[in-house]
Amino acid sequence: MSVASANSSPAGGDKRRQMQLPFSKAVEISLKSVRIRFARSLITAAGIFLGIAFYSSVQTSAVFSDIQADIIRVKREQLAAGAKLTPDEIRMISAADANKAEENNAKTRLQWLSIMGLIVCTVGITNAMLMSVTERYKEIGTMKCLGALDSFVVKLFFIESCLLGFIASVAGCVLGWLLISLVNLISLGPAAFGVMFWQRSLLLIATSAALGTFLTFIATIAPAVRAAKMPPAAALRVEI
Amino acid sequence: MAANEYIVRTKGLVKEYTMGDQVLKALNGVDLDIYRGEYISIMGPSGSGKSTLFNAIGGLDKPTAGSVFINDVDMAQLDAKELAYLRCHTIGYIFQTFNLIPVMTALENVTLPTVFAGMSTDDGIERGIELLELVGLGERLHHKPSELSGGQQQRVAIARSLANNPSIILADEPTGNLDLRTGTEIIELLRKLNKEQGVTIISATHDLKMLDVSDRIVWIRDGRIAKIEERKDIEIKVGEMEREGENETAH
Questions:
Q1: Of A17, A36, A146, the CB nearest to B103
Q2: Rounded to two decimals, what is the model's pTM?
């Protein structure tokens, strides 16, 4: 964190202290705030959770469709090399050949769905964070009356949103991934769960979680900064 | 001593609110000088502009025109950081709706301003306990606002306003949400602080009980100062005042 700009006023030293000290305090207050408003936090988190769960499930579906394509490709290569395949496997390849056009269609659809998933997720998170800031205008106004700097108020919300965003995103993407994996375990059998699956799953969970946390952070910036910049009188006047 | 005589001065204070295409003048040229150590009540019916004046003096809102001087410093010249410093160290606020942070205990609420002042946690807690004992809540340090009565909440708010030894306490209708007896207790507490600690108390109110303890009463009407009276002049006219107040409340 940058040090408060040199101040001409005699109280400059105190102000610098005021700037730097409350980070641990901000974490403490944010944590307390999440814990005590647990039900409310849960709803906020649910918005993020569901958005990311949807996104992650769509992405997991994409992984399975790639895996399936890969299995068929390997089988076809084996067939070309003159290997003996079971009738079941040959039937699978010919079915895939017949459905080639449809397969491509499904792939495009999945990509669209994935973009939609991202949009739904962003809207859910923005809405959740907007509500969580808006309902606390009065609290923000009070803190500013007591001498809180704008930056402290913003910090408070950023810590809280990152925390909520991270936990909800991890939970959400694991749920989405787990559901789709289970469905595919039933339809495809254990053969699909090879190295490729685990590699891509790990990548997918990591990116979904990072994406969820990032989106939560982004969605908090506007409302938190706006609330912190409000004159205290205006913030106190807001009735929800 | 002359420079120190006034703690708050306002000059030609104007505050306009725009509602649609209508411009509402909540304050229309207020000149007010407040002495150090004074207990002053700003009286007036609702809608007269007293809360707006309160907000302007406290630096909670920017006036449209005119200026507010606190300790001879023009508040309009202060940047956000200096303003926060002023709110933290020089002014303590008390509100009609208490405005305690609901998720914090009484002690944490009182300690919060000391955090903003950069005080260490231990010192802050010590200060918080001392203040809560001063307002008679030494037994309820760890209660949440929701577990306290209105009067107790207002006591916590008063303790909080004192946390950083302010020289001014601004109270916006401190008894507005309290019953008669609790209101009287709060007024007595404020008076005690004023007498014993020399804190300047500026209170916006339409509670006539306040008249008894105020050194001066400033009457606001339609965004202007109607009259300023010393307490000794006003005592006999309380009944009359009450009727005037009633006529004005339908705004």
A1: A36
A2: 0.77
